[in-house]
Task: structure prediction
Amino acid sequence: MKVLILGNGGREDALAWKLGQSPRIAQLYCAPGNGGIGDHAQCLPVDIKNVDALIALANQIKPDLTVVGPELPLMLGVVDEFNRRGWRIFGPTQAAAQLESSKSFAKEFMARHRIPTAHYAVCDSLDQIHDALPHFHAPIVVKADGLAAGKGVVICATKEEVISVSSEMLSGKLLGEAGARVVLEECLQGEEISFLVISDGEHVAPLAAAQDHKRVGDGDTGPNTGGMGAYSTSALLDEQMQSWLLQHVARPVVAGMKAEGAEYKGVLYCGLMMTARGPMVLEFNCRFGDPETQPILMRMESDLLDALEASIAGNISGEGFEWSTDASACVVMASGGYPGTYEAGKKITGLEDAAKLEDVTVFHAGTSKRDGSYYTSGGRVLGVTARGADLQRALDRAYAAVEKIRFEGAHYRKDIGQRALNGKKG
Ligand code: AMP
Ligand code: GLY
Result:
């Protein structure tokens, strides 16, 4: 069978790595892919923001299955267009992907279906912000309604700051169209957990839970990034809590979307805050997380291809998937300057030595390959991922591998999984 993966990040390298282990796959393609993905899939230089170009690619290579990595092609309707032409594709339709593409849609949907989330107000003007403010206590979270590549959430310490951030968003100055509507939210406290399920439109099966590290600096300091590392352990979410989340979050979302005529198939990523009042949904993503997918797939023992096909065919089993009891951890190595402007084209050394370490896989995110050598080409460059009998061992292996890899300006967080080790979770 021929499988096409769309995307070019660490998540897509992990998907290619895992799908590459499936005995039923004869040929893997990735559009556009990256330097590392090219080592186990055929990379095709196609712009994934151009749905017509993706259809032309499908007509050319005739994939038996297409797997969408990032949100953008989903929001542009790639699943609708592939389905219309009879190409099998894994992921939600454009209408279902609104759970990620519009924060106001997601909040109003959660209110309609009584899914636990922070108090909120949807505002289209500064007048509406002024009307809503008396119902909130500082700190207050201001979110742009549309996709903002991780820059659409600002936690404001005072109401004055809410007004200044909202007016910049609403005027289009800060984020263009994405900020034309804003959502105000109460600020929640607690541990964040990424809880992902695979849905077939009616049934869901959970993936192993993970925890991301969004800030650039140790101790959760500095600006937000796409994610600087993640880990997954069986202790992160006990069975009772997992059942609760299936019953009160994942299943109501899938049933609610179906009832509203936008059947949800694919990965449903629930970003949760575990508060003193119980778990609350911070956001939904309509795709695998990056970097969560790297440690999650390292622990997955079932064939991922079976899971993706079951989602499309509508036969996700209640028994779910098989998971290793091992822990896993991913440390992201980023380019100097990231998440701000960064330089690319730096030669990466030590990858072979790192890969020789036991239970280590180095997933490529922003890399390109020239004359047998790898060079940096993005902000997040590598996701150095390892497994071990417990989180400490997984982290020791991941950091031992990180120590072997060099490129100019490289930086990474030294404290991935540390809060879990210090007793919070794990
Ligand atoms: P989002 O894109 O909605 O997930 O927000 C990005 C990040 O902002 C989350 O991962 C949280 O760290 C933080 N965040 C979002 N909403 C809230 C909230 N209501 N309270 C506290 N932190 C939040
Ligand atoms: N790691 C967060 C995300 O994938 O959105």
Observations:
- The domain at 327-421 is CATH 3.90.600.10 (Glycinamide Ribonucleotide Synthetase; Chain A, domain 4).
- The pocket of adenosine monophosphate (ligand 1) is lined by residues 118, 141, 143, 153, 185, 187-188, 192, 214, 271, 282-283 (CB under 6 Å).
